[in-house]
Amino acid sequence: MDSVRLEELEHALPRDVRQRAQDRAEIRRAQESGSLWARLRVLLLLLGPGILVMIADNDAGGVITYAQTGASYGLGFFIPFLVLMIPVAFVVQEMTVRLGAVTRRGHAEMIFMRYGRFWGTFSAVDLVIANALTLITEFIGIGTGLAAFGVPLPVGVLLGLVLVLGVTLIGRYRLWERISLWIALLNLVFVPLALLAHPHWSLVAQSFRTWHIPGGLTGAFLMLLLANLGTTIAPWMLFFQQSAVVDKGLTPKEMRFGRLDTLLGGIIMGIVALAIVILAASVMHGTPGSSGLEIQNILQAVGRKIGPAAQSLFALGLVEAGLIAAMAITASTSWAAGEALGLRTRSLNARPKEALSFYLPGVLAATVAACVVLIPGAPLGYLNILVQVLATVFMPAALLFLLLLVNDREVMGDFVNSRLQNTAAIGIVGFLILMNGAFGASILFPHLIR
């Protein structure tokens, strides 16, 4: 009788709560077994959000930005700069892991709870605008990549939109995560392409010793610097990983897995980013048109220097980068909007028919972004760089809220930031503000910077 009653109570719970409980039960069973396979299974069950957020950070906009960086500046300043961005991204995202595991609430919800409706609304609107703009770059990448295979741009963009929304509306977080991870594996295609380009490794090594800026400090350099910052750390990443940690059911006891997950993702992100810069620098830097912003120029250069197969692989990687990021950012938009609106159901474990208001913001953002890409004559190359720069402009405010939350002892208890973590995080915020100020000065007072 008790078991029947318990089963009735379980079925009375919302579907997303039941799914999360089932996932947690599977993890507990694996933890209770002492076998090597069981321990490996626990690791595999708990990995996901960190790897996804970091690989999705190498999105289509990121691929295009890194390629434009290598084509414009070669094997120089940006090689060590991107290596430095790996620990920067880890420091930022590790805080979201702790915050999500301890509070078991999403980022937008925590801001509303601790700082009120005004700041909660501000952060949510800030994110939704940034996400909508970033989604534009993802569909640029998907459409441009598929165009290399003869698919017309409108058809390619619409195919990408259908796939992104189809995976998002599955109604099961774990399945969504596994599909995303398999797609994310294609991000590694840029590594062999960089090796096939036969780069001058001596110049790569020399860049760490000199850290020289070719052409000096110019407005164009500052714009690319901000774009590289914006594609390494972006507001959507904070909201995405914290909500993913909550949907996955990570607890404080398992935060070491969350940190490992994030570190592995950061290393993969850095390797791929470096590979793209090295590839573009090797095939295009110093050639006519190398400073252009259109990704088609780099695709053609890859085809000329390495071969048609390499061009197809680059295009395939561009499509993958757009798909994985569009899926992550669409989910991030739904999570944040759901938390901001106080929806009862705000989980990827919910079926669309049961949680239409949760899925709708992400669906609308992705659809509008795809439509923007289809506007005739839109300057897609310039738009991509501009979006990455705007992500850097939005980032300091998002990071300040994160810092306040992870230093709130009432929220975090013993899991508040250490002095070292605060020093690193405050340094990152300060650098972002400094770079934003320098770029603003270069626009307002162009005579100050060449």
Short description:
The chain is 78% helix and 0% strand. By secondary structure, the chain is mainly α. It has a single domain, classed as Up-down Bundle (Amino acid/polyamine transporter I).
Question: How would you describe this structure to a colleague?
Answer:
The chain is mainly α. The protein has one domain: Amino acid/polyamine transporter I (Up-down Bundle). It contains 20 helices and no strands. The chain has helices spanning about 1-10, 15-30, 35-45, 50-55, 60-75, 80-105, 105-145, 155-170, 175-185, 190-195, 200-210, 220-230, 235-250, 255-285, 295-305, 310-340, 355-375, 380-405, 410, 420-445. Helix 4 (about 50-55) packs parallel to helix 14, helix 7 runs antiparallel to helix 8 and helix 9 (about 175-185) packs antiparallel against helix 16. The longest helix is centred in the N-terminal third of the chain and has 41 residues, at about 105-145. The termini are far apart. Mean pLDDT is about 80; it is low at about 5-10.
Layout of helices and strands, plus pairs?
Layout: H1 2-12, H2 15-32, H3 36-46, H4 49-57, H5 60-73, H6 78-103, H7 107-147, H8 153-168, H9 173-184, H10 190-196, H11 201-210, H12 219-232, H13 235-248, H14 255-284, H15 295-305, H16 308-340, H17 356-373, H18 380-406, H19 409-412, H20 419-444
Short descriptors:
single chain; 450 residues; mainly alpha; Amino acid/polyamine transporter I; globular
